[in-house]
Amino acid sequence: METRELAFAGAAEQARRLAAGTITAPELLELYLDRIARIDPELRAYRIVLTDSARQDAGLAQDRLNAGERRPLLGVPIAIKDDVDVAGATTTYGSAAHGPACTQDAEVVRRLRDAGAVIIGKTAVPEMTIWPFTETVTYGATRNPWNTDHTPGGSSGGSGAAVAAGLTAMALGSDGMGSIRIPATWCGLFGIKPQRDRVPLAPHDDAWNGLTVNGPITRTVEDAALFLDVTAGESAFVTAAATAPGRLRIALSTKVPPPLVARVGKPQRAAVDEAGALLRELGHDVIVRDPDYPRTAIAHTLSRYFRGVYDEVQTLRHPERLEARTRSFARIGGLISEQRMKRIRAAESELSEQIQTIFDDVDVVITPGTATGPSRIGAYHRRGAISTLALVAARVPFQAMFNVTGQPAAVVPWGADTNGVPTSIQLVGRPSDEATLLSLAGQIEKARAWAHRRPPVS
What we know:
alpha/beta, Amidase signature (AS) enzymes, eleven-stranded mixed beta sheet, two-stranded antiparallel ribbon, Amidase_dom, Amidase, AS_sf, EC 3.5.1.4, amidase activity
């Protein structure tokens, strides 16, 4: 396999090649470091590349491989989103307001290291991970490798751009309002928001008042399943991804959750229609039906979102260094009292029950991944918090509802829009049923492969 193809082979395949001895861990790392040096100055997917520590870890991984040790990710380079702690590196949240370097790995990073992963660097995020675009005053703009005039999405925008451009085997993301699924969509990748509490958040438990989860952005379904196996403390997800799902009852829906107002674009609607046709050909029972979205659910979500950002700002060493838009966002969150937040959290079960009534009759709900393509770089410069939020919400209305319910949701690459930026479909499963989503996504991947696609900047 030539070096460029090896860069895009994915974590699971690289792990197999490392175990077989056809590539060494230092060689694989140097392949990525070379690509980052050549390609990332244009994309800015990484906030920092941990060159020295990664080289040390790759050498140790190779020693273990030579000794016959086998771990699921032994020697595989993985990037970490810059809202997750890596020992010896700062967690900046895309801001100059951060404190000193962390002394300990976050629990999810510890589990990845236990599986043998080599941590190659930390990927760029919007300040305080607020937005579905990745641009900051401190670190600049991260660009989409499919069309560099546009954002790769956010808040895991650096993770999405890095995987899409072949600058890492896989990347850790986090998702509080769609922040895995949005960049996975616009970067042509597979991304899954696991069931809440499936993957540890420690030491940042209950981030954004329970909306946020950690999860993978990957080239293949197998890679995402492997990530879940090693971070969730289970070992059934890779098996699920490789197992045919059987006949499922699947609902197609392009309804925008009220009271949001959004126009779903033609490429995004076409993706849902084409997915329905393919799934019928694969033997599934496909219907058109909308979830029963409560009209109060968006207000409920926004309250947890604003207050969550406010709470995180209180932990910063230098909050005075935050961008003006972020300070405004946090001030709004500070108006939501702890007592009100307790009432909002108590209402979650009722909202979730209403949304999930559709799963009494279906196994999976499919929506567009996003309503439109991504914004152009700089589109929201000099805009305030509320006007920015109103504009971005019209692009990504299908994600946040399932952060409220906590249930798993994934995006599968589909076609492309008129700007050459990928589109996707979103698969939503029953609570705790990642297995069905992985199985169905794996079936779609076999019928309509995407991992071979390469963006222009790669």
